[in-house]
């Protein structure tokens, strides 16, 4: 019959997510205010504070995995870190390369803000360096217009020295005595007998 509805409906968080948001605008406005009144160092402090929670959560994941596996190799730590970053929304992967390791982040939750304030990328790079336990080098960032945030993780100096020594030993390996050298492809192995012609007196 007539009257007030028997039920009331409200939007859930999932429903609200379908509507436009202005979080990036709010963050940019706040950081612009900080930069204007406190300078670049103040922005850097905000970035470090923003990433402190991420660093703590990822550190716990890396240390737990390291204790379980019993391995503290840089590349192994990077792979665990990639999984932890993926759980945080970064869609990260890690792989081993000839010069060490490589960490790739296929998504950046703060890319629009970091495009104007690179201190966010710098603070994130410092967190990655701390968690993998070595110096790292940022090669590309989404905020800078690249497709992927790529971080190079150099191999330890001792490992690189061993690799170079192994390469030198391989290239300088002597050929065992008595081993015949294989003929080149297409080369003839026949010998042409010499012909002594009798000279005709003039």
From TrEMBL:
Residue segments, region Disordered: 163-202
Compositionally biased region (Low complexity): 172-193
InterPro entries with a match to the protein in the record: WH_DNA-bd_sf
Protein name: Transcriptional regulator
Classification via SUPFAM superfamilies: Winged helix' DNA-binding domain
Source taxon at top rank: Bacteria
């Amino acid at each position: 019959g007539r009257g007030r509805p028997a039920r009331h409906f409200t939007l859930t968080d999932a429903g609200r997510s379908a509507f436009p948001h202005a979080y990036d605008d709010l963050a940019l406005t706040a950081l612009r205010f900080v930069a204007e009144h406190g300078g670049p160092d103040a922005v850097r402090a905000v970035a470090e504070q923003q990433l402190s929670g991420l660093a703590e959560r990822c550190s716990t994941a890396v240390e737990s995995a390291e204790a379980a596996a019993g391995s503290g190799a840089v590349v192994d730590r990077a792979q665990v870190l990639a999984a932890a970053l993926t759980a945080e929304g970064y869609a990260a992967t890690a792989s081993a390369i000839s010069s060490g390791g490589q960490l790739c982040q296929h998504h950046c939750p703060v890319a629009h803000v970091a495009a104007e304030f690179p201190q966010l990328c710098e603070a994130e790079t410092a967190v990655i360096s701390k968690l993998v336990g070595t110096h790292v080098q940022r090669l590309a960032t989404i905020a800078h217009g690249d497709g992927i945030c790529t971080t190079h993780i150099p191999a330890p100096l001792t490992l690189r020295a061993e690799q170079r020594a192994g390469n030198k030993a391989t290239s300088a390996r002597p050929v065992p005595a008595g081993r015949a050298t294989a003929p080149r492809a297409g080369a003839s192995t026949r010998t042409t007998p010499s012909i002594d012609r009798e000279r005709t007196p003039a």
